[in-house]
């Protein structure tokens, strides 16, 4: 209460109370929008461009559907399962997040948490001075991109109906567990596991859940596995660019404030990503003789993922080290180890999400346990005295915590994703029938990505509005029916 007797949360105008930090609120809304753009259109465009032509529509639509479905589930029950009152040490209580609640002023709060205006817990450690709706928005787009990343393992063969069921089930029984355990005040948070902005909650879980789901769904058609060229590399680069630039919001929004840590995390993100891309490209040249654009995109992604667990708690030199390792270790697991492992080759992980997100996320989390700067940790994690093993003292314990936290996230996702897939398959088939796998988008959705002349038909000037002299004097003939890719 203020001296005037008016609750602090409601001083000022109704839309802008005195406690509201407009700068932090504006940045957080911007950061959330940048993360949302990573999914739609970012990954929608990237998926649509990186797959074989006949799967462009289906792949983009899987991402689009997940983005929409997560929103409804999130505000209806999943937000509070991730960041609400504790039900058990790994899970919050399910309830809607549809009211426009306010967070009270920091002066009224204990040092260990921030609360809703009604006194209920919002999160366990951070104290943003802006409406609850901002936090709901920011965390929703993180949940959405996690499901879309899982889709990358399943492109080109999963039944769309099965995917529609998978999204809310996995969000409810897997994502919320990781989010609450690591971020929302659960046992890993209390223990001091560091996941600055989603290396474990998002990327590690998506990598291993995607790989597990790919095992249960089964492989693509054999000819698709043998030859699966990108249908539009420029689209792929467009999506990749939205990912990279959007990561300024992904990691920059981690502190819940427009502060020094946010600035450091954005710079560290770009340092690690650029180094990882360069290292991956150099390895492609050294071992395969050609620089690959798709390889560069993969190196970009592993750099973004690897820095995420520690972006705001490591120094710039550490970000460089992480970039070198992010561009080399996942490169080895994807380009060398995967081709030698009978088990890895058996599981058809379409875009190699186990490597670009699972391996890179695990690597980033473990490196954070080695390289986390104690001063930066205190700025970001006020309830802990964390330090990386590199800084001595009790730093070795932090590496152990990071490893144990990773094992929990991996184990839970493998088990729960398996249960969900088996349960769905008992109701509807996980995998499309062979006749749909043969045709692709036209059979599944009745739509094709490119209804343009020049792909199996002869140009028709009467249809396309140009006379024959504009095309070298060739006479126009009726188009030939297009055949499936």
Automatic annotation (TrEMBL):
Basic and acidic residues compositional bias, start-end: 462-473
Cross-referenced Pfam families: Ammonium_transp
Subcellular location: Cell membrane; Membrane
Disordered: region residues: 462-485
InterPro entries: Ammonium/urea_transptr, Ammonium_transpt, NH4_transpt_AmtB-like_dom, RhesusRHD
SUPFAM superfamilies in the record: Ammonium transporter
Keyword Membrane: yes
Main location: membrane
Entry keywords, A to Z: Ammonia transport, Membrane, Transmembrane, Transmembrane helix, Transport
A single MF term (Gene Ontology): ammonium channel activity
Keyword Thylakoid among UniProt keywords: no
Domain Ammonium transporter AmtB-like: 26-450
Entry's Gene Ontology cellular component terms: plasma membrane
Membrane topology, record value: Multi-pass membrane protein
Entry's transmembrane regions: 26-48, 60-79, 136-155, 160-180, 200-218, 230-250, 256-280, 292-311, 317-337, 358-383, 403-428
PANTHER family the UniProt entry points to: AMMONIUM TRANSPORTER 3 MEMBER 2, AMMONIUM TRANSPORTER MEP2
Job of this protein: Involved in ammonium transport.
Family: Belongs to the ammonia transporter channel (TC 1.A.11.2) family.
Name recorded for this polypeptide: Ammonium transporter
Organism of origin: Panicum miliaceum (Proso millet)
